[in-house]
Design brief:
The complex is a heterodimer.
Chain A: E1 17-28, E2 31-42, E3 46-50, H1 57-64, E4 71-76, E5 88-91, H2 105-113, H3 124-135, H4 152-163, E6 170-173, H5 182-199, E7 202-206, H6 213-216, E8 219-224, E9 226-231, H7 233-237, H8 240-255
Chain B: H1 2-8, H2 22-47, H3 51-70, H4 77-97, H5 102-121, H6 132-136, H7 144-173, H8 175-180, H9 185-207, H10 209-226, H11 230-255, H12 259-282
Helix pairs in contact in B: 2-7, 2-10, 2-11, 3-4, 3-5, 3-9, 3-10, 4-5, 4-9, 7-9, 9-10, 10-11, 10-12, 11-12
Classes of the chains: A alpha/beta, B mainly alpha.
Chain lengths: 256, 283
């Protein structure tokens, strides 16, 4: 595998701002999902997005991916002042596979990265390429397993490997830690750190796991339809806004 | 067709004898074209959980024929093809645009289509009996030029499969992920739905509206019990459709049953066997 260096074929933004979201708003019909959302995502940074269910985390991701119409601006800045749309690697919330679905990891992966029809015997080169991609997340042994037979952590690694091919400028992960056990979580977080240092790309992820935030996140965004608090993990977790959002919700749940 | 007749004459069956039973020889060729077609489409119907949808398409095809007959077309099939294609497009649009559960959307469309079909067919005290043949189907009535048409459709579907299957599969697994990789999810689904619409409508006359959906569901449903990847899935699905197609036709010839129903029963039996196999492997 070739090593992508800063500014070469790989992504590079030389410390400049990679993603700048200003006054973003999203409405579904009359329902306001997001409003006045502004934040920056810098190069090589891991930013964690937290917030209660229904706060608009997935909608924010899909808006950044260009799948949902919005107000406000999303600007991308790349090396050399290039402002064209960068490649965004997207790791969706774990799709559900039936245990019996006849889709192997290779089928899924090759269908996404190549035009060769997956119902025909695969050329050797394509198998090699998929294997190389999976090896990036130490998942090359999973290639002929069925998607439905993977554990939560294995599925996330396969999805991550897919998001890294082709190598994106920004990596967006929607709740990568849900449905993943403790070992899998540690492995996944180490891998994200490795990816960040190796490829110098920006990572934006959403999570409900606050305990591990300070181990990897450079910055935390607290979102509930708007950005309530931005800061280091320690700052956000100790803020009154965080207490208000989560304690209030817990209180409501407790009284039921 | 001469090449086919002389080829069939090599078979050791009484109906294969030279100069006789051309309807049976035509039917065999038609089955050999239709069954891989359904086997192929079946894989995506099952993967994309669209078996109820393909059933509804059959209903809309009937409505198309009723409208075509009303308008006095000599061959109302083209009207039906057009209507089924429009129906498929409309359905894909509504499914993407509304937050209604997909089976509810299909239920609404399907019942409306059937009601409209019956309404038109029985307008002015018209009798429904002339449509009975569509419900059961008769493969023995297939004409050589229609086999040619089916062969062209088979070719088009194979080309579609080669060009679009990857995108289709990814769209059915995760639309947002597919979209993030530059796949136009809506058009993928729309084109696939229209392909089913055309195939169902064109083959309805020979297979029979009441059993046509089983051909779109059973081959892949059984294949899914055995397959571990997409290659095996397609292989099993197409093989099951072809073998059941030939067996069903032979059975119907010998005991004078409906060919469509016989084929379906063979597929159902095959499904039951694969299901048991899967259960035994799981435990």
């Amino acid at each position: 595998m070739s090593v992508h260096k800063h500014g070469d074929a790989g992504p590079g933004c030389a410390g400049s701002c990679c993603l700048k979201v200003t006054d973003l708003g999203v409405n579904f019909g009359s329902e306001e999902i997001l409003h006045d959302v502004s934040f920056h995502l810098h190069c090589g940074e891991i930013v964690a997005l937290i917030g209660p269910n229904g706060a608009g985390k997935s909608s924010l991701f899909r808006t950044i991916l260009g799948q949902i119409p919005h107000t406000g601006t999303i600007e991308f800045q790349r090396a050399g002042g290039d402002k064209t749309r960068p490649l965004i690697g997207y790791v969706p919330q774990s799709p559900s596979f039936d245990r019996g679905d006849p889709v192997s990891v290779f089928d899924f992966f090759s269908a996404a990265i190549h035009r060769w029809p997956v119902f025909l015997p695969a050329p050797k080169k394509l198998r090699e390429r998929v294997k190389t991609c999976l090896a990036r997340v130490h998942g090359d042994a999973l290639m002929d397993k069925r998607m439905g037979a993977l554990s939560g952590g294995e599925l996330q690694r396969v999805l991550l490997a897919l998001a890294l091919e082709p190598l994106p400028h920004i990596l967006v992960l929607d709740e990568p830690l849900s449905g993943v056990d403790i070992d899998g979580e540690k492995q996944l977080l180490d891998m994200l750190d490795e990816i960040r240092t190796n490829y110098d790309l920006s990572i934006l992820l959403s999570t409900h796991d606050f305990a591990t935030l300070d181990q990897y996140a450079d910055k935390v965004l607290l979102l509930k339809h708007q950005i309530l608090k931005v800061g280091t993990p320690a700052e956000v977790l100790s803020s009154p806004e965080f207490q208000a959002v989560f304690h209030l919700d817990l209180g409501k749940g407790g009284r039921r | 067709m001469e090449w086919w007749y002389s080829l069939v004459e090599l078979l050791p069956f009484e109906w294969a004898a030279p100069g006789s039973m051309y309807f049976m020889k035509n039917a065999l060729l038609a089955v050999l074209v239709i069954s891989p077609l359904f086997g192929l489409l079946s894989t995506m119907v099952v993967t994309n959980r669209m078996s109820f949808f393909s059933d509804a398409l059959g209903h809309s095809a009937f409505t198309g024929i009723a409208i075509g007959t009303l308008c006095g077309f000599a061959d109302p099939m083209w009207m039906a093809v057009l209507l089924a294609a429009v129906f498929a497009l409309l359905f894909t649009y509504v499914r993407r645009r509304s937050h209604m559960a997909s089976d509810t959307v299909i239920g609404v469309f399907s019942s409306t289509a059937v009601a409209l079909g019956i309404f038109i067919a029985t307008l002015d005290g018209g009798s429904f009996t002339k449509f009975n043949s569509l419900l059961i189907g008769d493969i023995l009535s297939v004409e050589p030029e229609k086999i040619g048409l089916l062969a062209v459709i088979l070719l088009v579907v194979i080309l579609l499969w080669l060009a679009a299957f990857n995108g289709l599969m990814l769209s059915s697994i995760h639309p947002a992920l597919a979209d993030s990789r530059g796949i136009r999810v809506f058009w993928q689904e729309a084109v696939f739905s229209m392909a089913i619409a055309v195939v169902v409508t064109v083959s309805m006359t020979w297979v029979g509206l009441l059993v046509i959906n089983s051909l779109l569901v059973l081959p892949a449903a059984a294949g899914r019990n055995l397959a571990r990847n997409m290659r095996q899935f397609h292989l099993f699905s197409i093989l099951a459709a072809v073998v059941a197609g030939i067996a069903g036709l032979m059975t119907s010839f010998h005991i004078s049953s409906s060919a469509g129903a016989s084929i379906t029963l063979y597929l159902a039996l095959w499904f039951a066997l694969t299901f048991l196999f899967r259960q035994s492997r799981a435990s």
